UniProtKB/TrEMBL annotation:
Its EC number is 4.1.1.112, 4.1.3.17. It comes from Arthrobacter cupressi. Homotrimer. It catalyses: oxaloacetate + H(+) = pyruvate + CO2; 4-hydroxy-4-methyl-2-oxoglutarate = 2 pyruvate. Its cofactor is a divalent metal cation; Mg(2+). Catalyzes the aldol cleavage of 4-hydroxy-4-methyl-2-oxoglutarate (HMG) into 2 molecules of pyruvate. Also contains a secondary oxaloacetate (OAA) decarboxylase activity due to the common pyruvate enolate transition state formed following C-C bond cleavage in the retro-aldol and decarboxylation reactions. It comes from the Bacteria. GO terms for molecular function: 4-hydroxy-4-methyl-2-oxoglutarate aldolase activity; metal ion binding; oxaloacetate decarboxylase activity. Belongs to the LigK/PcmE family. Substrate binds at G94, D95, V96, L97, R116. The keyword Magnesium applies. This is Putative 4-hydroxy-4-methyl-2-oxoglutarate aldolase.
Length: 224
């Protein structure tokens, strides 16, 4: 088995830049309510956000050996995505590796497991998204795959897929679907801005969401 694949197709930089303008929730809805990673994966600081191609790595529980290998091979702008089999009781990433990523221009770190040194990571300014915060250390013993398909947070991620993260969570966009998702996300943003304007102009939820017939069919009774 080849553990590390160094060559895979990344999306064009302008595609990543245009997709980054949309929120994770907008993208999730626009692409048919798919792609959302498990909701427990959140930023260690609500102001953190990112958008970039995935570098996937599988680590054994309580073992960050392959994470360190992945940082070595990752490129500027990449998002390092670490699966550990949903094992939470380990701080597989902290300020030292955070500085290693920051120095290389890596866009973000995402894991279903735990991270630590969060105050230092927040000050560093590297977006870090994790399943939890845990001070327990790790070993460096077990080999695993890098840039192979990875199941994490209830989604399968392929190297080069685009990950978008913000205060609400993380969503994945297939690299080959990115242009379509950008167009759909823009249309959704435009529609929502128009709805907000109509609400401020006096529109109501039942009217603007076209609920009259649905509520009538369900037998809604209102006492005035």
């Amino acid at each position: 088995m080849i553990h590390v694949k160094t060559k895979f197709e990344r999306p064009a930089a302008d595609v990543v830049e245009r997709l980054s303008k949309f929120s994770s929730a907008t993208i999730h809805e626009a692409q048919g309510r798919k792609g959302a990673l498990n909701s427990k994966i959140k930023p260690i600081d609500r102001d953190m956000s990112f958008c970039g191609p995935a570098v996937t790595v599988r680590c054994a529980p309580q073992d960050n050996l392959m994470l360190q290998v992945a940082i070595h091979y990752a490129q500027s702008g990449d998002v390092v995505l670490v699966g550990t089999g949903e094992y939470e009781e380990a701080g597989i990433f902290g300020d030292v590796l955070g500085n290693a990523m920051k120095a290389k221009g890596i866009a973000a770190m995402v894991t279903e497991s735990g991270v630590r040194d969060t105050a230092d990571l927040i000050e560093l300014g590297l977006p870090v998204f994790s399943g939890n915060v845990c001070i327990k250390g790790t070993v460096k013993e077990t080999l695993g795959p890098i840039n192979h398909p990875l199941v994490i947070g209830d989604e399968i991620i392929y190297p080069g897929d685009i990950l978008v993260g913000d205060a609400d969570g993380v969503v994945v966009v297939r690299r080959e679907e990115a242009e379509e998702v950008i167009a759909l996300s823009q249309a959704r943003d435009d529609h929502e801005r128009e709805l907000i304007k109509l609400y401020h102009d006096g529109g109501t939820t039942i009217e603007l969401c076209e609920l009259t017939d649905k509520l009538k069919a369900k037998g809604l009774l209102v006492e005035e």
